[in-house]
Every structure is written in C-alpha cells, then in structure tokens.
Specification:
globular, 2 domains, homohexamer, 326 residues, alpha/beta, UDP-N-acetylmuramoyl-L-alanine:D-glutamate ligase
C-alpha cells in the first residue's frame, strides 16, 4: 500500500494522503495484463477492510486474485513524499515483520496448482529479503515451476536497507539459489560485483557489464540477462538506456532523456517489457527498445503501476512527445 | 463541458474530475471580453441542471448569454486526461449528436437581431463539422452578417476525427462557402492543401505558406489570413511562431519556446489576439506578436479559456518570465 | 457512469465531481458477488479511456467482465446533485441513444455461452425501455435461459421519464413477455395497475398488494414476487417495509425507519437480498427481512452500489445502530 | 467573500478553505434573479485579482455588475467554521474599515442613473452600520429613489457587534431616516423595542409583534412589514414561521420544522420571497408562505446565496421532503 | 496516527485519506492544554518523516514534546471508516508490535525528571495492554509519581481485542497494581465485574455502579472514581450521563441526547473535564456536568482530539444548540 | 496568513484555497529551529479563531509562541496565485492597517524580558514599512538588544509597494537607524544605491557590490553583509549565487541553476543559513554555500517556510538532484 502526500508536500505539512496498492510483482503483472496476458498474483492479504481494499484494487488493475490467501492481519505500507529537484523523494516504510505476506503459510499443493496455471513465474529480490519462511516459499515455488517446465524470471532488485548490515554476504546464497533456477534475470553490474562478489578490473559501468554478464550467465546457466543504466541530469531529467545479454551477445539500447513525473515502478515496467518481448519472440534489439520505452512511459504515469498498452509503447519507441490526441 | 482528471492521472486511476465550460467560440469570446469588448455567444443549452451550470459559467467568463436558446436536452462534453512528456494528453468525446446545440432551431429574425448587435462575427470550423442543420444556420448567419455589413472571422480548425472518412472532400464545399464570406481567416498551409486541394511544389512548411496564402486570399477574396506554426521539442517545450498575410504581405513573427501547462485553447487565444489587434488598427507586425503572446500565455493558464488582459499580453510580448508580482 | 457534485452542492455551484460506474445490473451483481456468488455482466462498453475506466471499476466491484463487449463509442452517464431535506436530489441524464450498450449487437452463440455459465439471470425494466434492439437481445437471452433451465429474475423498475408519453401502453407488451418467462419478479401494486392495467377496488397500498400480487402471479405463472413499500417522513427519515409473495402467501416484513446517506441503489440491494435468500432456501420470513436489511444498509453506503456482506446484513437485521467497531 | 473550512472542522484543524462571494444584497438579488427579475448590485470592488474574482462570481450568480465601481484596494471577508449540534457555527470577520465598499465615493448622477433603471431598491441594515460616508450614500440613494417613484425595501438586520457599545442609541436616528422612506420593511419585535425604543407590556414574542408592528407602520408610514420567528430545537432542527403586516392585518404563517445544512442567507431568501410575492400581487397569505418556503429551502443550499426557482419554492410550500427526481 | 476515509466511504471505495495524530493520552493532554494547563507527553516516536509529522502535530495541539524520545522505527496507526446509521464505524489497526512506543527504553532518571515537572500524571489502560516493557515503564513511573507526591489518574479503558483470549484474567493483576497507586480512576461497573472480578447481584447498570464503586474505592484505596453511561438510540442519537464517586457519595449527572459527528475521543474529553474540575476544586455536581458537557462537545468535533475551551464547555453545560456566532 | 489557489489557477477560476501561516520572521525562525536552535517570535495575534489557528501552526513549525501577545482583531493576509512560465505569480494583500501586529502595544519590560532569553535578534525591513508604532517598537527592541549584548541581524527586504511614493527617501532614516545597530545585514547593491543613496560608477551588478558593500560596512559599522544575486532564465529555471562580505573580504559563491516549485521564502532561507553558519563559526566560504543551498532547497518546498535540516542542506551543497531515498 502506497500512501502519498499531495503535490510536493511533506507529511509534516499536510493532512491528506492518496493511496494505492502496488509492489514489484503487482506492477509487473499489471503491465503484462495490459499486454493481454492473464496475470495471477501469489500473495496473502488480511481478511479486514484494508485487505478488502487491496483485493478490490488488484482486481481493478487486471490481476486475478484467485491465488491470494486471506490470512494474517496486516498489509505492508510505505509513505511517499515526492521530492522536487535537489530535494529527493522520500520513502518511509511501516513495520512489515508481521504482515500477512510475511506470516502466510502456503501449502505445497496450493503452490503446485498455481504453477500449473501459468507459463512464466516472476520472482523479486525484494521479497527474498523478507524472512526465512518467505524465502522457503519462493524456493519451493521456483523448484515446482522448474519441475513443471515453466519459465522463471528473477529480478534481483537488491535493496540495501532491507538486508541491513553485512547484507551482501547474507544475501548471496539466497540469490544464487534463485539464479540457478532462473531463465531470465534482471540485473546490473553492481549486483554481480556486490551480491555475487564477482571481480572486474573495469572502472566504467558499461565495460563492467560487458565483462560480468557473460560470466554470470555462464556460472548460473542463465539464458537471458537484462537491465537498465540510469543517469540523473542536472536539469532534473533522467537518461535511461536498456541492455540485454543473450546467446553471447550484449545489446545496448539507445539512451533517451526525459522528464520524470513518478519515478517508482519504472524498473518493473522495464521487466514487463522484456518478458512480453521475449514471449512474443521479438528480435533482441526490439525487445530492449520496447522495454526501455515501457520504462520511459512508466515515469510519466501517476503511481507505481505501469498502465501502458503495447500500442502506447510502440508509439513511444519512436516519438518522445506528442500533441493532444483528440 | 470539459471534464478533467486530477494532475496527470487517467480516468481508470481516479474517481474525481474538475469541470468547466468552454469551446472554441467561448474561448475567443472570453478573451475578447477581457480586452474590453462585449461578447455574445449564439448557441443552445438545455433547460436543466447542466444547462444552468453552463449558462452561469459563461456569464462568469464575461459572455452575454442573451442569445443562448434554452432548448434540447444535452450538452456536448469531453473528458481530458492530461499527458506528461512522451505520454500525450487524451481527449474522449461524449455523444454530441443529440446535443442542444446540434438540435436547436434558430429563427431567422432571432439571428438577424443577434447580428444587429455586433461588429464582428466569429465562425469556427469545428461547428461546421456537426450536421446540415448547424451548417445551414451558420451560412444563414454569415450571409445576414454580410448583408448588415459586419466583419466575419472564420477559423478553419479542421478536425479529422469529426469529418471522418473522405472528410476533406466532404468538407471542401462547406469551407468554401464560408471562406467566400469571410474577411479574416485563421488557416495554415495544410488547410489550403488538404481541405481546399490547392497544389504546391514547396516541401517546407514556411515555403508552402508563402505560396499558398496569396492564392487562397485571391481565390476567395479574403482580406487577412493568419495562423501559427508549432513545433514540439524533445524537452517537452513547444515553439510557436505567428504569421499574418494581408495586402500582399506575409509577416512571420518571432519564434518563442516555452513550457506548457495547458495546451487546449491556445489557438483560440491567438485568434482573439488577431481580432483585437485588427480592430485596434495596430500595425500587422504588432498584431502578430500580440496574438502570439496571447497564445503563449494561454498555454500557462489552467483550462481551455484564455484569461489574460491586454496588459498581461503586452508584458509577455517583451519578457518570457517574471518573478513574483507583489 | 455516475458523476456527483460534492456534498449538497449543485452543478452550477461547483467545479468538481466524483465519478463511479454503476447501474441496476451492476448493483445487483456487485451485491451478489459480496455474498460469494460469481457475477457476470452482459453489456457493452467502448474501447476508449472511458470504457477502460468502466471495465476496471467493474472488476474492482467483483464482477467478471468476460461477457462485456468492447464496441461502440459512448457510455451512458448521469449527473447527481444530492439534495437535503425539502430540496430533492436531482438526476440529469446524458444522451444514451448512441451508447455502446444501446448500439451493441450480440451474437446468438455469445448469449447462449453466457447463459451456460450461470444459474440465475437478472433482467431490469430500465434496459427494457431503451430500444427495440436491446429489447430483442433481452428477449432472446431470456428464452435461451428458459431453454437451458436457468432461473430468471425480472425487476420491473418502471421509469416514467424513459418511456415517455403513453408509456404504460407502449411498455405493457414488453413487460408481459418478460413476466411470462420470469421465475422471480420485483414489482409493486403500481406496476400491476399502471403497466399491466390490472384493476383493483382497494384504495390502500397494502390492500392493493394483497389483491393484485396473486392475480399477477397466476396470470403470468410467476413463482415469487417481491418488493418494498417506502414512506418518506417529515424528519427526513425514510421508512421501509419489504414483502414477498410465494405459494399463495403474502408476507409483509417489519417496517424500519432510518436516516438516508445515499438513496440510489437501495432497490437493487433489496433484489440482491431476495435472490440470495431464495438461492439459499431460507424461509420466506427470513428472506424478506434479509433483503430489507440489505436495502437499509444500502442507504448508508456512498454510491449506487451495495457493498455489504452477509454478516453485515445479518447484524443489521437485528440492530439499528452500533458503536464504533474496534 | 466567505471563506469556509471543510465539513465541521475549525481553522486550527485544517489547511483548506472554500470561498464564495455573497452578502445580504447579493443574496437577495441572486434570489430575485432566479425568479426572473433583472438584478443590479450597487457596490465597489478593487481592481485586483480578488475584485476580479468577485465580479466574475457575481456575474455567475446572475447579477448585473454594471453599477459596481472598481476602486479601492480591499474586499470585506469573513471566515466560517460550521458548527455541529451544541457547537455553534462561528464567524470571524476581517478588517472592513478600508474595504472598497467602505471607501468608495459614488457620484450623484451615477446613483440617479442606477435608480432610473430599476423598480425596487433594497437597503440593508448591515451596510448602515459601516460609516458616515456609506450612510450618506444610502440616504442619498433612498431619497433619489423616492423622487423617481421607486419602491424601497429596507431590511433592518441589526447586528450588535457592528454597532458596538451604545449601539442601539447610535443606530436609532439612522434607522429612522430609512424607515421613513421605506415601503416594505423586514423587521421583528426586537428591532422595534431595542433600536426604535418602542414600549410594550407584552412578554411573549408573538404578542409583542401584534402590538408593535401596527405602531411602527403608523409612526413611520410603512406599507408592509414582514419577518420571521425562529426556534432552535433540542434535536438540532430549526422551526420557522413567517409573518407579514399590511393594511392593519398581521398574518402569521404556518410553523415548519426542518434540518439545517447552511444557516447563513436564510433571512435574505425570506426577503426575496416577500419582494417577489408583493411584486406579483399575490394574496398576503400566499406571500408569507412563499417567502417562508424560500427561507426553508435556503437552509438546504450550500453557501449564503439562495438558488431556488419559483417552481422549487412552490413545491416546498406543499411538501417537506421528496424522493430523488429522475 | 489516525487515517480516515472521506465522508462515509470505505477504504475499498476511495483513494484518499485524512490523517491526524492522536491517542488517549494525546487527547486528554490536548484538552487540558486548552484549559490552560501545561501538558507533557511521555512517549517515543521514530526519527523519520512520520515521526517528524507526529511531533509537529503534537506541538500544534499544544503539547510539550520535550519528553518524547526519538527512537525506534514505527508509529502505531489505525484506519477509520466512518459509518452511518445502521452501518457502524470500523477501525482497522496496523501492526503495533514494533512501534517506537512499544520498543522504547526509558531511563529511570529520565522518568523521574519528567515526574518532577508535573502535578498530575495520567495513565491509560490501552497502553497497559501493550507488552511487559511498557507495563514495567508505567509501573515505574507511577511509583516514582507516588514517591514525589504527584496525583495519579488512571483510565481503565479496557479493550477486549487488545488483551485477546483470557484477557480479563491476564489483565487483572496489572490493573490492580495501578489501581492501588491511583488517586482518580475512570471506570465503570463492567471493569469492576469483568476485570476485577467483583460480584454483584444487581442487574441494572446504575444499580451495579452503586454497589461496586464503593467496594472498588475501598479495596484499592481510591479517592475518586468517575465515568459515563452511554445509550445509542434508534434515531442515531446518543444519550450520555456522567457519574462520579467520592467520599462515599455517588453523583449521577443529567442525561443528554445529541447527534454525533465524531465518536472517537469522547471518553478522553470526559476524563479531561474530571481532571480539570477536580484541580479547580469545583463541587462534584459541577465537575460531573462540566466533564459530561466536554464529552458531548467532543462528539461534535472532527477527529479524536477535544478542542473546546472552558468557556465553550460552560456554555454547553446550559444550552444544547446555538445559532451562528457572528 | 497565506491563502493560495490550487495548482496554477487564478482566484477567479477556483473556489478553494490552501492556507498556511508564514512571514519573513516566521520563515527565518522556523529554519533556525530545524537547525536545532530555540526560536521565539515576538508578535501579536488576535484572540479569535484565526489567531488560534495561527498560534497552533506557529507551534507546529517549531516556534515558541511565548512572546506572542493576544491582542487586536485582525491577521495580515495575502492571496497567492501561482504563475507558470511567462505568467508571473501574483500576490494580493488584504488590509494590514488594523492588524493585531500593527496595533499591538508592547511594554518595555516585556521586550527586555524577550531579549534576555535569546542570543540573536532578527529584524526585517518589511515590518519597518508598517507604521510609526511598529518602527518605534523595533528600535526600542534593537537598542535593548545592544544594551544586553545580543547580536542583531537586519534583513533590508525593501518592498517598494509598501513604502509607496517617495519611498526611498521616507525609508532612508529608518533603515539607517537599524543599520547602525546591526551586526549582520542582508542587503544588495540596490539597497545601497536606492535606499541609502550611495553612489557608484559601476554598471554591472557584481562590480557595484564590490564597491558598495565595503562602503556600507564602514559607514554603519557593520561586521557582516550578505545577500544573493538571482537571474531568471528563459527556460523557467532560476540561477542563484550567494555572497558575503566580512573583514574586508567579499566572497562570491558558486552559481547554481534549478527549477522552482515555490519561490516565496527563499530569501529567508538564505538568511537562516547565514545566521546558522556564522553562529557555528564556519569559514565564510562554507557559510555562503550552506546558505545558498538552503535557499535552493527552499525553492523546492511547498509554502513560504523552509523545512530543511542541516543534513538536507549539506547534501544539497554537493549534489543537485537525487534518486528516491528508500
């Protein structure tokens, strides 16, 4: 649950909030649902007014809520104070220790049944940081997916504040377990260096990518690795460039600069673009531009959750800005 | 009636709208009323709560509502979802077929009486696209204006979606009828080429203008033709340049680049500036800069309707931005 | 689509609206979905931003949108100005003639497939007033339902403004066609007298019911007829009493008086309570009290659409008001 | 200018306000304009953004703003915190000493020209409390009206806080000057006793009226005197009863009890009902019920300004509450 | 932190919330601060944006925040969906286990220093339900207060959901420890029967009070016990009656009925009235009516926190409702 | 009190406002309070609902309200219409003549006691423009501060509209009195030339500074003079450069360009940075960059009042923009 102050005000200045329901998985699934895929969220929500609101809003986003357990008492939340220019946006989390998701106990058949319904499963590094029970569910689910021959997508999404002190060390083995099972991985050079501890002599980001991605793909037997490089410019615009590594080839997309309305969720939009592009069997050059355009558009949309259709994104691949559509 | 989602959200994301009452004619008249002219709208609105709200808001904008008939049942509406950067603004129309305006039947004396009260009549190409009855009223009104020696302004405002398939062909004769009666026409090179089917070998916009405007003026016996050229830049700014053709001279104004708050209604602001400048007998060079500054300011104003005074516009002719006025 | 002014203001006073998506069918289905039933809406919506918003919100309400065609261009809307005390609430409709629903052309197999998925079909007298095409679809659907052995619920919902002049006469045969196919009918003594033209010497409402319902049930071979009697009291409260006729027995429920927050949709809540109660095979005395409590609660809920669970309603059957639940 | 906190919150609790432009004269004129009369406000407003907003909103209410001078710098304002039950609504005024209205200097021909355009002039005791210049303008205007044979309505509206210490004594001569010129006076027994110092032995309100109104009418040669008696009941409802005295007859209207949405401006609605009823030459019994119903409806309308049409009021004369109009 | 949906909507219907910072202690202290007392809150808040907002808002309410530790990470929150009539208001709590308050570790000198600054300490049964550490801090503080000769007020505020299964048994010893130290206790007959397990043969609430309060006062050596009896009526009004027991006398206040705007925090307003009345040495009859009027007014104020001054309350002791104060 | 229209709308377009309580002194004190200083405002506010709201909000900002007198009746206000691009923001003041601040009569001991509690006093040229009584209080306070050995900061803040015709001449002696007492002065070359009438042959701003500041410092015996140079660029960004003169050295800071969210209060943020930097004894180069960063951040914050902590500002000294903090 995202709770956001109006405009660019802080929590101390205001007495009103807008709320919505999102999360990395929700965002990827919502985007895929816009592309015409059926999207199922495996999660848990409390059987109270907040859970009810969450379920209703997930349905609204186009997700099937059939695999959402109603158990536990709490919903994970974060407060967002949107920044402006030199004042960064600020996220404040509420206690997630006892959330329905973190305390839910999924049965084996339940998970197997969920796997049976889908072609692709998406896992996120943020949930990997939660607790042992969640990690055990994730691993079980990934193995079951492998067993049933489903594709596995894993987005590293390493968040330092969630792993805390000595986080890289504590995270490594968990990341490795999922990497070994994954077909498609969202990752950058830092993940390789810091989480996986892989060495490189290169100093420049792109050079590091070129050295590390083949090594990662080889070591963990990963078919495809993709991600983005972002630069924040002095004039408040961002510059973004996608990349994808597959079959020994690293393809760097074109860099675009643009103004940002809502930063959160852009990575998930990129992931959704990669997944959809691969599922459609597009050439990798097109996949990476489609995904990057999806990410760019996600910066123009209020809230965490990407809402663009394939048509919207195709248009954005070619043009930066448009006049009123009427 | 314009119904607009908050901020940059879409209709599917929100549950609130802001509404206002506008339209090409309303915008031009409201702007002229700010310049000190008396402004009368000839239109029709239903005798219900929506019509009441529309009439009250037109009065608020400074229009005389004396020539607004209260008949029919419906008001034409559009929904506006404001875009951001690469995500274009989107307009969704409601059914206008049965609107009070489209079904109203104005009496001949009624129209003659309205003409008798004014110096200048403004016609808009959007209403020309409505239906035969509306077109017949427009033509009747224009002929009556001619008969009584009033000035006629005609803004081409060709909207492809309203004319539909084979639109240019279907529109041509209707446009020609009004062009032959008009003294001042708002038009660009595309109108000449596509609607009127006039040929040009030039490839560049400005060159096309130079060739076509004299030809149009001659063929339809038009005293003054004016318009703007707009470019949308990569950094979300727009660039605008006004032009005016009169007495064999084509004057191209200076180009200005600026950020855009609300795109809709800027063309109407330009038209109002041309009309006011001509009525005041300003030199054409000043007319075109005044009108272009009016258009630029209209981009900075919330809603379709220009609200700037002559003083505001004169200031904007010379300066792009100002500090707080206090 | 319902567009509502804030608080008790009129359209002429405000510049903001809240919107939601409802309708008699939506309300009944949403209520049944809260009771645990699967609910499918058969309708049509345009493939534009408004249609997208509508579909998303219907999903949010818990409806399956699988049988919603995306065709046509427009959505039916109404504006609501909430009244206070002696100032009645006011509804202003937009043009529905060209709405997606009124222009949609459903295929026979499409309708047959929809019928095949459900146990009960709900028809509403409001849609019966639309046009011949809609009526023909309704009749086709009802016959198909009969053929496949489904239960048919028909809510008379006669709206004078929709049928216009000589409405009762024009409506009669259409109503009769559906009554002959229906198993459960929502109706009151006025429907019998005015639409069906059935005579009664009784002067008092309840006495009229007692005479007419058995006659209607017999003539059209209807298993169950139900409805409510409402009184509006001087102190702004409403009094409501449910009734149900079945197997020769007319059961009058208890009358309750209560304050009203949102009047619209209460009849649909009553219908949903009747349907749920009958499906669960409750004794008729309980069915009528359950439905009346559902209707009472619907008056306390913002918007047209009932949101109460069975537990909420059971509580309301027994208590009028409660302290904070914490 | 009225600035109002949301809901029932106080200024210290909130950071948002709604604003509108009203005043006793504005309210009476707006109501009369709804009844089909032309309504002119004689006042002054500054030539700045606030004055612009005020003028636009007065136009929106249907007032002609032709006789509003644009001079001075300030607009009188008040803040309204709506109370609930035992917590009374609270009005906080801003400084009015230097307002445009209080500092404006109207020319004699200006006032004479304004008088020439109207049939009836309405004066209010609130403005009488402002300062000597305002009072001198009022007196001049009233005498000019008399000279030109116009009807004069004077609403006593004595406000203790505005007259301050020894207010009754200071006010008396000013009230007497206007009473001697007035044809119709809005007044109650307290005005007669406290402002005019007229004696009565009666202890009960209605008895005091019966004794004092004939005496006032005789002494100041007033044709018609009207007003209301209000009781505030324990259950938050108000009870209101109108009365009118004319040609030796005191007619007491029926008492009605009702819930209150917005208390301010109800007296002005009553005055507008009296004026309209008298202008139409209705029997006094009807005048008083029409005016009382206008006042009742004004309690149901957001803001100070009555917005009901004659049809709305006629309906309210007969029914207290109605179901949704659709 | 209280997060509240707009109007009477549910979390699933809306996307906006209003928030404020309250709590039983905050409410009592804020009320006392309005009465002219200095008020210190002993609590803990995180050193992040939420904590900053909380501290700023507590200052706004008039509390000294000097004794608020900045430690831990989370703030306790609850969501409020305001009910209407038969639909009860609903409170949904977030996880409080890890809140700053529940994890804070106060030093002994810190608490002793806080005690040294005040005359009276207020303890609340809600915090008693938190955890052992909190309870230990409370006991330490109460003993230190006793040692330094301060008055101790204890409000039982037993909340079944917080104590859970076998709550009464688990709570008893903790309540007894504080009762033995308290000078003034807020309590009703149920607390005595259920928490303290004291027997009574009486069946009627008031009779139970008469038997149990003297017994409680004697057993735990309490000087004064006070509380309220509330009835919720069929017409949505509440009836409230205060009582106080001291020096062998049980004084029952007058019962008042009234409409309710915001139910939460009324008990705290009553407690603040008792404390202020006792500190001022008013006769007990006046204390109980002052406190009951404070509680009544708290029902008319938006939010949990009472904001009335002594003058407001004195007025409310005598009158139920008032006209606009202007 | 600042009353602000939503978004970029004008007062004539809207019916809602946001309000807050600010002022040059409030802004400086609030910023210093964020830096850990205790901050006391010496002012006057009415004892009514507006005064109550003001006091509550000043407490919320972290100011001690102990030295705020409750006297008089009115609060000074201004309306803000935020501009966009070429349309400048517009401030409209209400009447301040009779405000509590302008009519308050502070006692000598009262002021002496206030001085005794603080290390530094901040005076503002805006209040110097009010009236003789205010100026006399300021002078008394400054002399008392000198007597007690406190530091005096004086911000020239010359506002032409407040001093009116012949303002520079009328202001000069009042400015000189304060300059002679001040230790730190906020001032630019225009103040020296226009208010103090000091001559310079230089034509360029920075050159003028270099000539005039040493002269001013010498003539009035001022230890430190600081200020900023602002340029408004064509693309709506502003460029700002701080400077400080002390001990014969003029240090020009680096120039930064940035987008502006809220222009008002940036000068006060700069002053607060200078004061804090000097109090901490930072090198002047660091003082000026710290103050300039504080000013830049103030442009990114909603409202007049700076809210940044030292940590926020230190970060902004080094980076222009940052990604989400999470």
């Amino acid at each position: 649950m995202r709770l956001e102050t109006p405009g660019y005000s802080t929590l101390a200045q205001e007495n009103q909030l807008k709320y919505s329901f999102s999360g990395s998985g929700v965002n990827v699934l919502s985007a895929l649902s816009r592309f015409g895929h059926e999207a199922y969220l495996i999660s848990a929500l409390p059987d109270n007014a907040l859970g009810e609101a969450a379920v209703a809003n997930l349905r609204k986003l186009g997700l099937s809520t059939r695999h959402i357990m109603r158990s536990g008492q709490y919903v994970g939340m974060y407060f967002l104070e949107k920044g402006f220019g030199a004042r960064a946006s600020k996220v404040t989390y509420t206690d997630r220790l006892g959330s329905s998701f973190n305390t839910a106990s999924f049965g084996d058949e339940q998970l197997a049944a969920a796997v049976a319904e889908v072609d692709v499963l998406h896992f996120c590094g943020i949930t990997l940081a939660m607790n042992d029970q969640v990690r055990s569910h994730m691993l079980h689910l990934a193995r079951e997916a492998k067993r049933q021959g489903r594709k596995i997508v894993f987005d590293c999404n390493y968040r330092p504040t969630l792993w805390g002190k000595d986080g890289y060390e504590r995270a490594k083995s968990h990341y490795e377990q999922l990497l070994q099972l994954a077909d498609v991985v969202m990752m950058n050079e830092k993940d390789a260096m810091l989480v996986l501890g892989m060495p490189t002599a290169a100093l420049e980001r792109e050079q590091q990518l070129k050295e590390l991605l083949p090594a990662v793909a080889k070591q963990y037997d990963i078919q495809t690795i993709a991600g983005t490089h972002r630069r924040i410019n002095g004039d408040n615009t961002h510059s973004l460039k996608g990349y994808i590594f597959s079959k020994e080839r690293l393809i760097m997309g074109r860099e675009h600069s643009f103004s940002v309305h809502d930063r959160v969720g852009a990575g998930d939009a990129y992931a959704s673009g990669i997944i959809d592009g691969l599922l459609r069997g597009l050439p990798l050059e097109q996949v990476v531009e489609f995904a990057a355009a999806a990410a760019r558009l996600a910066h123009t949309i209020q809230g965490d959750t990407p809402l663009s259709t394939r048509e919207d994104i195709e248009k954005a691949v070619h043009n930066e800005t448009g006049d009123v559509e009427r």
